[in-house]
Design a protein that fits this description.
Blueprint: H1 2-11, E1 16-21, E2 26-34, E3 38-43, E4 65-68, E5 72-77
Antiparallel strand pairs: 1-2, 1-5, 2-3, 3-4
């Protein structure tokens, strides 16, 4: 089953998706990297750091966070809905 999710994630690379895992969690973000065991998504939307924005250090989300392919129950492409 993981091979199926790997190819699905590769097809949706760079797109905003909603991933439902086997534990009931919902992850929404842009797929930024895919390995044979994990998919990495960067959250969408503002980071909401607060304050006035002076002296901001750093950029972006980096690799995002990883989700094990074996834990994925469903993936929905939400680019049309976003």
């Amino acid at each position: 089953m993981s091979l199926h999710w790997y190819h699905t994630c590769c097809r949706y690379h760079g797109k905003v998706v909603r991933i439902h895992d086997k534990f009931g969690n919902v992850h929404i973000g842009r797929i930024v990297h895919v390995t044979p065991t994990r998919v990495y998504i960067a959250p969408v939307g503002a980071r909401n750091l607060g304050g006035f924005g002076y002296a901001f250090v750093g950029w972006g989300w980096g690799w995002g966070y990883g989700i094990a392919l074996a834990a994925i129950a469903a993936i929905a492409l939400i680019g049309l809905f976003w």
